[in-house]
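Thread: Newbie trying to understand structure tokens

Hi all, I'm a second-year student working on a class project, and my supervisor (Dr. K.) asked me to get a predicted structure for one chain before our next meeting. I've only ever worked with sequences, so writing a 3D structure as a token string is new to me. If someone could post the tokens and maybe explain what I'm looking at, I'd be very grateful. Here's the chain:
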Amino acid sequence: MNQLTIKLFADGAVLDEMVAAYRSGVVKGFTTNPSLMRKAGIVDYEAFAMEAVARIPDMPISFEVFSDDFEIMEREARKIAGWGDQVYIKIPVMNARGESSIPLIRKLSAEGFSLNITAVLTVEQVEQTVAAFAPGTKNIVSVFAGRIADSGVDPMPYMKQAAAICNSAAGTELLWASSRELLNIFQAQECGCDIITCTPDILGKLPQIGKDLWQISLETVNMFAKDSKQSGYSILSAG
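---
Reply by user tm_fold:
Sure, no problem. This is what the structure looks like when written as tokens:
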């Protein structure tokens, strides 16, 4: 863990897991999204958000707008901003019709709101987003490196370019989003990312960092042996 300089954010919407991550002292912030909230069974968005802010009072938390209409999205953004000083308003880089969110981003940023622009995948989107931020504001650009990799493309060159662009704007941080495995933390750090979001499963693997590979091999074999015994399978008696 000592070799990590990148900030770890916990990604999720299960409040008990968020609080546990907060108390662990490992994470430096939190992200949520509509899909995670739906999976967690959240029925009252504002009540969930207010409880999260109350129980995690001194770390950044990103809450996302839900609407696909820019006018309503703006109203939602203004309401989210009132949920706490540490709150970032999460806005997708475009709506479901492929229409750019840049005009709304520019408008909200000019008023000093802290924004987290999400679902970013291209270098052009990073450039346009960073250009829309007002000087003196705090912002996050969430590039979905995991989804870039899902397309069969190495995300590392993209993330390095994105880091250079974000680093040119004071107050703007680059976030490696949609992480898939523990290795992504080191990849994100190598690229110059400021933040990486991690699921509880990935955070749970942090003790594996630096572990002897022979020991992991032994533990794996022991797992296979335990599962084989519990399964009741038999090869020799089958004949």
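A couple of things are worth pointing out once you decode it. The chain has a mean pLDDT of 96. The longest helix spans residues 213-231. Feel free to ask follow-ups in this thread.
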